[in-house]
TrEMBL record, chain A:
Transmembrane segments: 15-38, 163-184
Name of the protein this chain belongs to: histidine kinase
Database matches in PANTHER family: SENSOR HISTIDINE KINASE YKOH, SENSOR PROTEIN QSEC
Database matches in PROSITE patterns: HAMP, HIS_KIN
EC number: 2.7.13.3
Organism: Ruegeria spongiae
Lineage: Bacteria, Pseudomonadati, Pseudomonadota, Alphaproteobacteria, Rhodobacterales
SMART domains per UniProt: HATPase_c (SM00387)
Major localization listed first in the record, in broad terms: membrane
Domain of life: Bacteria
Record domain Histidine kinase: where: 246-457
Limits of the HAMP domain: 187-238
TrEMBL record, chain B:
Pfam family, one: SBP_bac_1
UniProt source species: Ruegeria spongiae
Keyword Transmembrane: no
Keyword Signal (UniProt): yes
Alphabetical keyword list: Signal
Name of the protein this chain belongs to: ABC transporter substrate-binding protein
Amino acid sequence: MSRAAQVSGSIRRRLIGQLVLGSAVLAAVLVLLVINLARNVAQDTQDSILMASVTSILDTMTVRDGEISVDLPYAALSMLGNVSEDRVFYRILADGQLLTGYDDLPDPGAPGREGGYVTAPYAETEIRMATAERRLSVGGTPIMVTVSVAQTRQGLMQTLAQVSRVGGAVGVGFFVLAALLAVLTTQSGLRPLRDLAGAVSRRGPKDLRPVKGPVPQEMAPLVTSLNSFIDRLRYSLSRSEDFIAEAAHRVRTPLFTVRTQAEIALRRVERPENRAAIKEMIRALDESSRAAGQLLDHAMVTFRTDHLEKEKVRLDELAEELVDRLRPVADLRDIGLSTQSAGNPVVQGDAVLIENALRNVLDNAIKYSATDSDVAMRIGQQGGQSFIEVRDHAGGFPEGALHRMTERFARGDNAGGTVGSGLGLTIAREVLEAHGGRLTLENKGDGACVTLWFPAS
Amino acid sequence: MRHAVVPGLVIAFWTLFASALHAYEIEGELRVGDAAADTHLRIISTTDIDLFEPLLAAFVAANPEIAIDYVVASSAEVMKAVQSGDRFDLALSSAMDLQTKLSNDGYTQPYSSAATDLVPDWGNWRDHLFAFSQETVTLVISPAAFEGLEIPQTRQDLIRLLRDHEDRFRGRIGTYDISQSGAGYLFATQDARASESYWRLSEVMGNLGTRFFCCTSEMIEKVATGEIAMAYNVLGSYAAARTDLAYGIRIVELQDYTIMMLRTAAILRDAPNPEAAGLFIDHLIRAAWGAGERDYYPFPRFPAPEGAVSATRRPIRLGPGLLVYLDGLKRRAFLSEWRDAMRW
């Protein structure tokens, strides 16, 4: 019946994938930014301390007795020890000649007025060196003094490694959180779609009402199209039902005329082979007329279930009335009809429809029963549900065909010469489903047992 | 490669001594443990053999596969020995400045273990230098010479006392000749950093004709005999160890501040047996900082100062600051100022 949709990709997977990918890119950018920022800050910090050290040395340089004097301040080097445990090197030059310190420190380049920084390999590792110059006048001769202070970069690297670790952890945390949010957001974003699918697929087979629940803006076009599709479907369905009903109605009247004429003819005909032919004709006419009647019934049932009007219906009274009406037919074939009622089962429903359903079931039972047998009806309540059970002794439904007996135009293999259209049980089932109940078929003993279940009112 | 990290002056010395059999002078030598042991741990140290032997013996007893060749030299010679390229495993020295310079110039290698975590932060520089003793720098006096006088508790007290009794103390004050003694130079420079009263005290001492000595032991002996009345800036641990002189000396920790010197140990960069050296460092640190006293540990144990700032006992801080007074210009300037003050 329902064909599985052709699936190509998944909005959910695609959304989650794109969001997670986006989070990963964002997290990576964040980590890189943090590490880069930390690198700059750490480098600036080291530079400013180195320059402070250089300046403090330069400030003690004076000319005394025609000689350049340096009083290396204790703090100039000890302050470097306060921030990290790095190795420290320094050099003081006067016009390029070593005054004191480590002579083989790398060339500072041109430090300029503000002082300069270089990173260079030294002492089997890498150092950061700050250098500044000042002009001193010794006996009228200007002499350029150059002070460099350098430090290894181990502390800096340790700080960076630590920042990178923390940054990495933050990045991973951010990513995990963002991915989690992506999944949740996708789930909640797609919920209306799921809800709509659920609402549509939960519907009964006859439910062709438009979708009315509120949907998000983005889904409005879909729902509008769906509703207009449902409208067209309903219109087209009702057109064909109308057509069938009209056709059945138009066929039934001429059929009745032909049957009357055939019966008159039967009385006049003497030859046995002619009588047999006419009898066969009458039987075929009966079958056609009954089929037309059931088609009409079915159209009526369809119409009424679409506009179901509910009122209180007493099942036992309804059954009694029906039995009274059917008794003449049953008596013709010496079939006994009995009803047995327990409790006071009342249901909400359309009495005409329920009667029609029960009549179809009883008709079947009587039709298939042998002469001189019984059809028993039991009315009662079980588990909050009301039921009418109809049992016969006509041999039951063919095994293996129980599940499809209520489909339209399906007839049991044993239908044989019995007049019928195959719509009876379909009508009964549709009526019960319209009332929220169900129809169960089973074989019990030597006959069929059909039960009409109504929901608790 | 080593040239790269040695200042110009030292390079000259280094090339001069490299050809010599021993580029440095030693004061004593001792082998502890089995001569046929797998590993010979070579230690060069400033600590006297008699003081250190029990600790060495305890190490060898615990690690019988290791024998120790223990060489004693002055702090300057320890420095020279390391720079000469003679391959020692460990350098143990009381000269914190020289040890710092060795480490700063790349002669040492880092080490860390569970034991090194016992060392307080201020006793560990870069995981290269580990302090294994805390020794107070004290005033040692002769009780006889101070008879009838109040024992000074601060440097101010001491200055006042010396001014008030110039005759009693003239020519009877001793201190290090800091131009010869590395330890004396370190104490003097740290003193000068700690307080201005050091220079006033120096001038007072200079006025009274202070005598200068090379070593702690000589000063302590002279105090004990009463030849001098007091010795300033003497290692308290050495004085306390001289139980034979206990009758004639008294150790005074000045209350305005008392400098604490830390002996430090470092594994040398070219150590032939770095693993064994690490074991020895652990052994030293456990004895110095671990829980419980070891009878072979020769130095007094002090509770690690919590609030070092307010404490009277101030450990000399390891770090690049110590390099400042090793600078040639700075040293020359300090010595000249000191000589001026001491009238030497």
